[in-house]
Amino acid sequence: MSLVVEDVVKRYPGRRRGEKAVVASDHVSFTIEPGEPVALVGQSGSGKSTLARMITGLERPDSGRVTYHDIRVDQLRRKELRRYHGEVQMVFQDPYAALNPLHTVRYVLTRPLINHLGMSETDAHERVDELLTTVGLTPVDQFAGKLPHQLSGGQRQRVVIARALAPRPTLLVADEPVSMLDVSLRAGVLELLGELRRTTGVSLLYITHDLLSARLVADRMLVLHEGRIVEQGPTVDVLRNPKDDYTRALLDALPTPF
After folding, report:
1. How far apart are CA 20 and CA 16, in angstroms?
2. Stretch 9-37: mean pLDDT, rounded?
């Protein structure tokens, strides 16, 4: 199931009267093939999250189209959008805000199983154990009954990923999924995303400002600057031989041990 973003434009009005509109997406086009891991890289304000919201149907483009498996995402109605969200799931940036502090891990994971897949409570509970095992939260009995505040940041993000996997999506949109985590926890979550892609065949759009993490996760890279894709290609080639000045500036900004 290919994702096709075709000539997408999205503008936001200026905050004050007389201010120019902000162009968040400026005629953006790209495709993600089934099972492909793609990184969308750019600094804050480049338009990455706007694209994520349009791909997941949370916003509509002003012009252009977003198509997934021949479905026009930008034309879906509410009930159709709910079904679409079973296919395309989002992993949010902040694991602290993404989970309801009053609900246990088991409750958080059973809801999409029941709502999207129509599972019984018994079958959903069994599937929760499988999901927790998949994301490395074992023994499951030690995690299923916990509330979010009883988990570390890395554990919370693993729960968020497990929730996204629950309805068996074919595309994950991960919007800065490790930026809120300590450096010591990031490698584990990135390794998990890579392993999930290899074992489940899910497509991945990994959105980040961090070129190094993109190299670990994605085979292909899109570089976004001021709403436009200024460079794209195999991740290794883009990092080793950047052609655009903006890409080179991002690489120059990377910290080195020297």
Report:
1. 9
2. 88
The architecture that CATH gives domain 3-252 is: 3-Layer(aba) Sandwich (3.40)
* 165-177 exposure pattern, b = at least 16 Cβ within 10 A, e = fewer: bbbebbbbbbbbb
Asked if pLDDT for residue 257 goes beyond 80, the answer is no
| Mean pLDDT across 199-207 | 92
Q: Which residue has the tokens 């509970």?
A: 125
Q: What is the C-alpha separation between 56 and 76, in angstroms, rounded?
A: 11
- Report for 17-21, 26-30, 90-94, 183-187: range of highest mean pLDDT: 26-30
Phi-psi region of 244 (alpha: psi -120 to 50; beta: other; left: phi over 0): beta
User: What would you report as the CA-atom Rg of the chain, rounded to the nearest whole angstrom?
Assistant: 19
pTM above 0.70, yes or no: yes
